[in-house]
Amino acid sequence: MIKISEFPVTHSEDAISLNLLSYNMQVAIGSHRVHHMISHGWRYVMPHGQSVSNLERIARILSNYDIVALNEADAGSLRTRFINQAHYLREKAGYEYCDQMITRDIGRFAQHSNSLLSRVPPKAVYRHRLPSLRDGRGVLEAHFQIRGHQVVILITHLSLRRKARMAQIEYIADIVNRYRSVIVMGDMNCTIDSPEMGRLFARTGLSGPEHTPATFPSWNPVRAIDHILVSRDMTVTDISTLTEPLSDHLALRATIKICCS
To answer: How many domains does the chain have?
Structure first.
């Protein structure tokens, strides 16, 4: 692979454009029908015959972005035949860089993670444990220098319980407020009009797009719980879901414009 030192982004004196993707890939177990929530349940803990073929299909839909945020990518355990899924996707989808934070470590049986795929390496990466009743939620923080402009990417996957999410939002807001240009990506397990998202917007000045597409469940999307949020110096100019269901979530893609002035 040819190494590159900068994103091949659209750039003018006034703005930089980035193409982003956020995807809860559900460990590549391939749930895309309502009955799969039961019939595929065993795939969360045991290897299955479609594991690699599902990863190959996922790699194809990940291949056209500058930065990809992955939730529920296994870091290499029994259920994935000890394949680190994020690293596998980095190679197959043609990305220069991969990093991850293992959020729920169940030894050789499961290694849940938040993961990053990028065209170029970040300048720095930090990992944060989020407050939760049990360990298993976190934030992967990556710092990029894009055409001389510092951009911080936060990849997270929030809890199912609102009380826990509110505490996690407070923690994330503290990180966001350290920087000027921040993008938050991931499965937030709540909609844009929820109290917890309202709290995040009020504390940070982050915002979402005018329209947030529904991502869950993938076979009949009715809830917009996966998000790409940006700070005040950015705008989301285009956002949509990818229609191929390879998980219980649809992948969410967006083009963002960063103001350089």
So the answer is: 1
